[in-house]
Amino acid sequence: QVQVAESGGRTVETGESILLTCVASGSPTSIAAMGWFRLGPTTQREYVASVTLGAGSDYAESLKGRFTISRDEAANTIYLQIDALKPEDTGIYYCKVSFASIWSPGYWGPGTTVTVSS
């Protein structure tokens, strides 16, 4: 069983930056992909970015530029740096880990909330 925990969410002002962290624990051997999704107040859950062993980083096309994902494989940890935050970035950010692609069944964390005030 794999446990996933996100942290770093908080209230920030427009234009600020934030760093989100996701840690996988339990029996996280052979994790292939780790990534971020988000759920906004008026939007469905959307894909943000992921890192897959052997395939590198990937970003949602509409979010390229302000989002940077990184991974510490030894620590089963990923990070999401978001710069120049906008009110529309407000939402719950979820981390997912998978043993194959990010789109295969996996484990989710409970989410961490980011609120961007205008």
Structure description:
The chain has 118 residues and is mainly beta. The chain has no helices and eleven strands. The protein has strands spanning 2-7, 11-13, 18-26, 33-39, 46-52, 56-59, 67-72, 77-82, 91-98, 106-108, 112-117. The strands form two sheets. Strands 2, 4, 5, 6, 9, 10 and 11 form a seven-stranded mixed β-sheet that branches. The chain has a four-stranded antiparallel β-sheet with strand order 1-3-8-7, with no helix packed on it. β9 (91-98) and β10 (106-108) form a beta hairpin. The chain is globular. It starts with a strand and ends with a strand.
Low-pLDDT regions: none
- How does the helix and strand content classify structurally? mainly beta
Average pLDDT level: 94
What order do the SSEs take from the amino end to the carboxyl end, as H and E?
Answer: EEEEEEEEEEE
Helix count, DSSP H or I runs of 4 or more residues: 0
List how many beta strands DSSP finds.
Answer: 11
- What coarse outline follows from CA principal-axis ratios? globular
Main sheet characteristics: 7 strands, mixed
Assign a percent range to the helix content.
under 10%
CA gyration radius, whole angstroms: 13 Å
Separation of termini? 40 Å
Tell me what portion of residues adopts beta-strand conformation.
over 45%
